[in-house]
Amino acid sequence: MQLDLLEKKTAVEIGKFIEIGKICPIELTEFFLKRIEQFPDSKSIFTSILKERALQLAKEAKIRAETGIRKSIIDGVPISIKDLADIRNEETKGGSTMIKNQKAKYDAVFVKNLISNGLIPIGKTHMTELAFSGLGLNPQTKTPENSIDPKLVPGGSSSGSAVSVSQHLSVASIGSDTGGSVRIPAAWNNLVGLKTTHHSISLKGVLKLCPSFDTIGPLCKSVEDANAFFSALKNKKINLLSPLKLRQLRFLVIKNVFFEKLDQDLKISFDSHIEILKNLGVAIEFKELEEIDKTLEISGTVFPAEAYATWGELIEKSPEKMFPPILSRFRGGRDIKASDYIKKMTKLREIREVFLRKTSGYDAIIVPCSPIKPPESKKLIEDFNFFTEQNILALRNTRMANSLNLCSLTIPLKANFSGLMIFCHPNEEEKLMRIGLTLENQISKN
């Protein structure tokens, strides 16, 4: 098969071609390595290229494919990894110039699990400083250009991950999501992004930000891929899912908070899709839930408190090395008392219980992923107040899933930068992705 025809193919589709001998994993890996080498902006996307190891893993994948002992349906597929996960013999920089660590001795657990399923990491990707921004801008290291409009930021903090996939430099990527860092860049680059339930995937060997909220998840080209990578990240058998019947689904649209200051184009995109679903017989209810407002208020305390507790000591040794708006956001947690943090977390756990009870009668919650389109990089660098305002807005909707410990999926609508975000209860990823697959199929028809 002509490899440049694979640009827009999904991981599962490519895996099936490997299965039947139409694609050689070595040639496939060499193809992507060459694309990276020739891509003009690749150094703003990748922090390092894992050429030698990738080719060795590809050789092993080729042997497995030829002998019929493949490890999974996506065995032999090249992927990228966000540079906050340890990869053996590579430095983990976390988007910061402050971290001076030695090369990792071991792979992060989730990286090990991916390799156990035959995946081939080909590079580590750039990210925002210590993962504490949803915009994707990083003046201290590199900022990848948005794949749709190069003047715009790509979304973050998994910025390089998203752009590596949308520019067809890797088939998929693995990022992290503490407040939206998988889903925002996915939405802003017309990709699928999965935020997993907290603790469902190991964080061993991963740089922490907010340990109560950090999660690992894929950025990819289809819901089918998201499902496959979710299993691979846990080293579980990959079972391909079937869609559900639209008329059997019951959705809740939460009206408060999520639609405030919503960009008009994104609103039109979301509203038109809701109308299509209603016309197809989907039961959709619209409600306000006071727990959402309470969660928004609490998250303004607990996220910066944990972030500063994690990184404050390092930051204060050389604060001049951090982009001022990011520094200011970290320092927002400096003076939060332990007693206040504990009270807020206790209250948040109570809110989670009430929220789950109130939403138990619905298959899922659907809301817009981001209320804003990606802003221009130049303006964010020049105007710190604008940066702060846009960062808060970018993270507002997605952060609800992290605060309430929900699993969440964003799938691209027809309009650029427009993600349809789905929430399901904790550990309901299978249901989440079956719903996502159903909606993805419907979107492709309209």
Task: Describe this entry's structure for a reader.
This protein has about 450 residues and is an alpha/beta fold. It has two domains: about 230 residues, Amidase signature (AS) enzymes, CATH 3.90.1300; about 140 residues, Amidase signature (AS) domain (Amidase signature (AS) enzymes, Alpha-Beta Complex), CATH 3.90.1300.10. The protein is built from 14 helices and eleven strands. Helix 2 runs antiparallel to helix 3 and helix 9 crosses helix 10.
List the helices and strands and how they pair.
Layout: H1 11-19, H2 25-38, E1 46-49, H3 51-67, E2 78-82, H4 109-116, E3 120-125, H5 159-166, E4 172-176, H6 183-188, E5 192-195, E6 216-220, H7 223-233, E7 250-254, H8 264-279, E8 283-287, H9 290-317, H10 324-331, H11 338-358, E9 364-368, H12 377-382, H13 384-403, E10 407-412, E11 419-424, H14 429-445
Parallel strand pairs: 2-3, 2-4, 7-8, 7-9
Antiparallel strand pairs: 1-3, 4-6, 5-6, 5-10, 9-11, 10-11
Helix pairs in contact: 2-3, 7-14, 9-10, 9-11, 9-13
List keywords for this structure.
2 domains, 42% helix, 14 helices, 446 residues, 11 strands, Amidase signature (AS) enzymes, globular, alpha/beta, eleven-stranded mixed beta sheet
Note the gap between the termini.
30 Å
Name of the CATH homologous superfamily of the largest domain: Amidase signature (AS) domain
| Total strand segments | 11
Provide the structure class: alpha/beta
pLDDT averaged residue by residue: 98
Oligomer: single chain
Describe the global form. globular
Give the biggest beta sheet. Answer: 11 strands, mixed
Rg, Å, rounded: 21 Å
Series of H and E elements: HHEHEHEHEHEEHEHEHHHEHHEEH
Q: What is the CATH domain class of the largest domain?
A: Alpha Beta
Pick out the low-confidence regions: none
Question: Strands across the major sheet, in which order?
Answer: 1-3-2-4-6-5-10-11-9-7-8
CATH-derived topology of the largest domain: Amidase signature (AS) enzymes
CATH architecture of the largest domain: Alpha-Beta Complex
Query: Could you say how many structural domains there are in total?
Result: 2
- Give the fraction of residues assigned to helices: 40-55%
Give the amount of beta strand, in percent: 5-15%
